[in-house]
Amino acid sequence: MEKISFATYLQEKIDLDEKTIKKLYQKLTSEKHLKNEVLLKPGEVCSHAFFVEKGLLRLFSIDEKGKEHILQFAPEGWFIVDRSSMYFKETSQYYIDAIEDTSMVYINDQFLDFAGQKSPEFRKYNERLLHNHIRHLQNRINSLIAASAREKYQDFIALYPDLTLRVPQWMIASFLGITPESLSRVRRNLAKENFRPR
Amino acid sequence: MATKKIEIVVPPRPAHFVGDGFRVHNFISSSYRLDMERMDPFILMDYNSKFYFPPSETPKGVGVHPHRGFETVTIAYQGKVAHHDSSGGGGIIGEGDVQWMTAASGVLHKEYHEENFSKKGGDFQMVQLWVNLPAKDKMSKPKYQGIKNQDINKYQLAENSGEIEVIAGEYKGIKGSASTFTPLHLQNALLKEGGSADFSFPESYNTALLVLEGNVSVNGEPVSTDHFVLFENQGTEFNIQTEKGAKVLILSGEPIGESIAAQGPFVMNTREEIKQAINDFNQGKFGYLE
After folding, report:
1. Under a CB-based contact definition with an 8 Å cutoff, are residues B215 and B224 in contact?
2. pTM (2 d.p.)
3. Among A1, A187, A198, whose Cβ lies nearest the Cβ of B141?
4. Residue range B105-119, pLDDT digits in tens
5. Contact B92/A at CB under 8 A
6. Is residue B6 part of a domain?
7. A196, B28, B91, B252: which sits with the fewest CB atoms below 10 Å from its CB?
8. Quick count: other Cβ atoms within 10 Å of Cβ A96?
């Protein structure tokens, strides 16, 4: 995947001019984390959200049997955050780690306040982003409680088209809340229907 | 005849693992000045420099993955590789053998250390090269050319100083064993002590070499083991010499000159075609493989 710089993102999504972006950037830090690095773990308070410019992060929990449950993937152009931690200062019950070497921008409260003051467009966009996030969660809840394994997989590839090439099968199964065997069955059946060797 | 001068000597980048079975230095396309456009039609070269793998009951390798839009050329110098694909094809690439796989419209496969090699362990050395296909052939039918070492045509150098294995293209009248979609040369120079070989390629071709064993001098300039040499386009002739013996892979190809859109295992001409490839893969159109 191509890198998506936060500056380009702001320009394209909110149509901010360069001068405003330069101002906003004073309140931002960028970091690079290597594959497998953990950015947040249970018991910590995470005071920022991450915007992924290049690479891939995930938000997940681990149950008492040691099984991982993936709540969200964040490839290029996505935000990822534990909201209970960032906005309510609660200790987190989640992990965030890097699945690939990842370049990201750290976004904290002060930045959001500052950006909101400097740019009404940013404030409006940020509000829309929140609704977009809730829309995603709404669809995800519906999918988890009502959809078949095949429908869940179809929703997944519509949302994250290239992740099937970037993450192992078990992570996709974990995200979908189905067993890896069930995911294999779905993919095998799709191949049976659609594979026409030439 | 004008000498083809060295443009740059590229040392190996830090190695990384592809799956758990291939410890490779990438030269094309992530090294400085070895991007896909400059190296056209060669769009990737991963080099597993000689590396000892201890015995393993479970063969190490790289799991199921697709390809579309190009050819993969695997040259096994030491160790053996087994492969399987979703059409039921499979085979073993033995020491000195070459597998020329035309992924074209799509192959879903996996590559592992061959079972016996894995159990015994040993030195492993190989090159995987990706050769781009022109737009008109990108969606053609996939095929394999499994070329055993004994079937690779060879040119004997004068004074018993070594031989040239002509994998593809031509060397002094000896034709290559593999068929290619666009004009290109791929050759192993196996030079004995004091050996020397001359090469000649058109200026319009992109030309390079990789030193696999020993130290050589190229047009009189020393080049060490595991180093990659990119030649200038200008000039046609160059010479490789060695004091103590050497093995060198030489590649030269006519640029295809089309736009390149690449993501992971897909190399097409446009972003739209990449999106289509990802979608086809997700929908099972490359088949299924455990």
Report:
1. yes
2. 0.92
3. A198
4. 999 999 999 999 999
5. no
6. no
7. A196
8. 25
